[in-house]
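Changelog note: in this version the structure field was regenerated for every chain. One regenerated record is shown below for reference.
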Amino acid sequence: MIRRHIQDSIKRAMADTPVVLLNGARQTGKTTLVQELATASGFHYFTLDDAATLGLAAGDPSGFIRNLAGPVVIDEIQKAPDFFPAIKLAVDKDRTPGRFLLTGSANVMTLPRLSESLAGRMEIIPLFPFSAGELLGNQEGFVKRLFDGTIGKAKPGRSKDDLELRLVRGGFPEAIQRTDDERRGAWFASYISTILQRDVRDLARVDGLHALPNLLKLLAARTSGLLNLADVSRDAGLPHTTLTRYLALLETVFLVHRLPAWSPNLGKRLVKAAKLHLLDTGLACHLIGTEARRLHDDRSLLGKMLESWVVGELHKQLSWSAPRTALYHFRTAAGSEVDIILEKPDGSVAGVEVKASATVGASDFAALQELREQLDKKFFAGVVLYTGDKLIPFGDKLWLVPLPTLWEE
């Protein structure tokens, strides 16, 4: 079994927090992980995917929670929203750490009433599809190196997989086991159908969401691009209000996410356009009908998918190594941009530019140099990730870095 790096974070949270919620998209391995933890710690395990358990829970949530003996795992908690007030009452009477380990396949912070019920009593830990390091058995050290000044000392190995194959495969546990393109495509098709026809409809409480599959395909084609709601609304044939609602639903089930704009001015961050990324490049490639050969031949498409993939990898790494470090993108009024900005709570910043090429020129460092000059001492590192194999310094705090450095220890 592939070890998940987030395990240690879960154990630390359960040592001092009454309720821990493992939150993430379906089929990312939440159930497997909590079952393993339940077995090791002697927790009772309940899943609300089971109709009988859900029926009992929904009928009398307070009684169900009150009669639980000892610490418990409750899987797919979003199916029984009334559990949250019941858990709150139980925790207020007994704040023993680690009483409840929950999982959810919808972002509870966006669901009515749920986010307020356990404020101050619950820690939320995200779980993403497998990271590149997890698949190789490496505890990635890329983010740490960016901020401790050792990125220039990294010794990247060579990738055993073709880059294009890595992108079309993605990180979902079931998808990576399927080496046949058609069988992997069949799994993605079934996955999308399940999410859109069951989970999203349950959250929306209405039918008539027929435009969602097409909208998701449109968003996949725009991954790593600036989110222009007017353009998407026109291309999807949806009113702006409907598009906004549908996009929120897709974010709630973790299929898409926005990378906000960064600015030294905190207020401007709220008004600048975000970039849109899909959760998983394997899912994105399936939605637009592309395979590894097409990515190899279409360098523009490869660049978009690679940028989304790197953003996803950094989200995964931050979830267990530096959860308070935030990700952004940076774009000036003149059009100069840095694909990814990492900012720590103390204001220290690192920048990452992604190039789907083995040849990089001085112009590819221009935006990072501009950012370095603007931030001065708060700028810790700027790297251009590329598909070449040599790590080369490019001035003060700037490096040209091979892509495999991203998943090395």
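Spot check on this record: The CA atoms of residues 178 and 184 lie 5 Å apart. The longest strand covers residues 379-386.
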